[in-house]
Amino acid sequence: NRITWGDIERIAFPLLLHYPSAEIFRYPGGNFKENRLFNDICSFFDHIIPAYFFDALMALTGRKRIMVRIYEKLHRATGALEWFTTREWKFSANNVLMLIDQLKGVDKETFHFDIRDLHWPTYWEDYVLGSRKYILKEDNSSLPKARSNLRRMYLMHKLIGFLIMYGIWHRFLLRTHAARRLWLLLSSLVMKLFSILPAIANT
C-alpha cells in the first residue's frame, strides 16, 4: 500500500484547509520541492523575510519578538528529518504477511493490521482531526470560526501579493503611456473588489 510525498500533498493539504486551526498566523501554503536550491530560495522569501518583518512590527509596538525563533526551530526540525524525507524507502512486509496468514477466525477480526486495507484519505483525515483535537486542543465546535478566520487570511494573503506586485509594477513598468492606462484600469477594478471585501469576509 505505497504512498508518496506527492500523495500526502494531494490528500492532506486540502484537509488542512477544510479543518483549519483557529490560531493560524498566516494562510497555509507551499509544496514539496525536488531541488534544494529552489527550496532554500522559497524558504528565504516565504519564511525568513516575513518572520523578520513580523518581529520588526512587534518591536515597534513594544511586544515580544517570536517569529524568527519559531521559524528557526521549524527549520532545525525539518533539517533533522531531511535525510529520511528526501529518500525513497521500501520495507519488506513478509513477516507481517506471514502473521496475518496465521491468524484465524475471531483473532483475525480482532487484530486486523493488514496495511493493504488501509485507506489513505481516511487515515489522513483522522490524522488531521486528531492533531487538531489532541495536540492543538481545539474542539470541532470551533471549526466555523476557524474557517471564517481562514477566509480572512486568504484575503490578506492575496492583498499582500497584490501590494508586492504593485511595487514591482510601479518601480519598473510604469514608464510608458500604455502601461499607465492599463494600470488605471486595473486600479479601478481593484478598488471595486476592495469595496466588497468586508461582505465576503463576513460570510
Automatic annotation (TrEMBL):
One of its GO terms (cellular component) is peroxisome. Signal peptide: none annotated. This is Fatty acyl-CoA reductase C-terminal domain-containing protein. The chain crosses the membrane at residues 153-170, 182-201. Keywords: Membrane, Transmembrane, Transmembrane helix. Residues 47-138 form the Fatty acyl-CoA reductase C-terminal domain. InterPro entries: FAR, FAR_C. It comes from the Eukaryota. GO terms for molecular function: alcohol-forming very long-chain fatty acyl-CoA reductase activity. Pfam families: Sterile (PF03015). It comes from Oppiella nova. GO terms for biological process: long-chain fatty-acyl-CoA metabolic process.
